[in-house]
Fold this protein.
Amino acid sequence: MYKNNNEAVSPVIGVILMVAITVILAAVIAAFVFGMAGNIQKSHVVAATAQRTSSTTVTVTYQGGQDAGTLQSIQWQVGGSAASPGTPPGAVGTGGIMIANATSGTVNVGSSGVITTGAPPVHVTAIGKFADGTSQVIYDSNL
């Protein structure tokens, strides 16, 4: 009488799985040790708001945040183009830029201004430029 012996199947599969897990863990640890994951940029924490005040104007305000001391300017855009200052222009100058305070070198928290837009809805974006040379979108919405 022939007896079927399947005892070796489970240990072999177990060893293969353990070797695979070990190789994956070694690859992940090597990536961190050798700096392969080191090119991740830090995100700046600041906030800006925009509120439609009429059918053709939007009031924009810089709210500050954790990295408020490093924000040098904000470029406001409407539909992908530089925003036009409204009346009165407030802190938003030519080209839709909210410029840094001459003394501190940073945009004052609470700075606000009016930009001219088309009829609603329009896509309003604010791009912040920081002291470390980086740029980041800090506001993006349809108004």
Summary: DSSP finds one helix and nine strands in the chain.
